[in-house]
Amino acid sequence: MKIVCYLRVSTAKQGLSGLGLDAQREAVEEYARVTGAQIIATFTETESGKLNTRPQLEQALHLSKVTGATLVIAKLDRLSRNAAFLLTMRDAGVKFIAADMPQANELTIGIMALVAQQEREAISKRTKEALQAAKRRGQVLGNPNGAAALHRASRGNAAGLEVIKAKASQHALNLKPVIESLQGVGITSLGAVAAALNERGMLTPRGGKWHKSSVSNLLSRIS
């Protein structure tokens, strides 16, 4: 059996220090040793678990899809605490296994995804309640001069749009090899490309599904 290893840490500091990565790598390597599997590639992601846009995961999914390999992670929560994202992964057409529970089936993963989502929502609710309590006590939150400074610099909306454009452009570059691979096997129409990207569990820059219009924008950015 061929496997693709996907590792993730949540901060740049952890990524540079290797904190958490060694344990994940050891877990996947142990799984490969026990099952006699061959690790054909390893992808390492460093970003927030709340974000669904992950170029390294997209590449890992793509490689798994085209080689028929199994995507292996150390723990299920290394992917995300977002239930919709986990369920999309489950239905992406790529077999994936969590080394800490290799016997988990689709029902188990679905239930765990919903529990993970509930946990994330509970954390968000506690954070909001704490902020509201601080406001009631008269505590000033955030930077009171931040908006004014942006306004004085005439950068408000323009700066926000530039950030969005830069993110979309980077996402397009990350997906360029995938698009070239699809075109190489004759998948060229907007609808067919959108369907292929959705089948592989790859998300738009905003974390949604692909449509003809979003594929058209993607191809324009790539070209």
Question: What sequence of helices (H) and strands (E) makes up the elements?
Answer: EHHEHEHEHHHHH
**Morphology:** globular
Helix share bin: 55-70%
Q: State the helix count.
A: 9
- The name of the CATH superfamily of the largest domain reads Resolvase, N-terminal catalytic domain
| Overall tally of domains | 2
Low-confidence stretches: 12-19
Distance between the termini: 37 Å
CATH architectural label of the largest domain: 3-Layer(aba) Sandwich
Instruction: Profile the largest sheet.
Output: 4 strands, parallel
- The strands making up the biggest β-sheet line up spatially as 2-1-3-4
Nearest-integer average pLDDT: 76
Strand portion: 5-15%
The assigned structural class equals: alpha/beta
Which class of the largest domain in CATH terms?
Alpha Beta
CATH topology of the largest domain: Rossmann fold
* C-alpha-based Rg, rounded: 20 Å
Strand count: 4
Kindly list the characteristics that best describe this protein:
9 helices; globular; 58% helix; 223 residues; Rossmann fold; 4-stranded parallel beta sheet; alpha/beta
Task: Note down, in words, how this protein is organized.
With 223 residues, the chain is an alpha/beta fold. The chain has two domains: 2-110, 3-Layer(aba) Sandwich (Rossmann fold), CATH 3.40.50; 158-223. The protein is built from nine helices and four strands. Strands 2-1-3-4 form a four-stranded parallel sheet, sandwiched between helices. Helix 4 links the parallel strand 3 (70-73) and strand 4. Helix 4 runs antiparallel to helix 5 (106-136) and helix 7 (156-184) packs across helix 9 (212-222). The longest helix has 31 residues, at 106-136. The radius of gyration is 20 Å and the shape is globular.
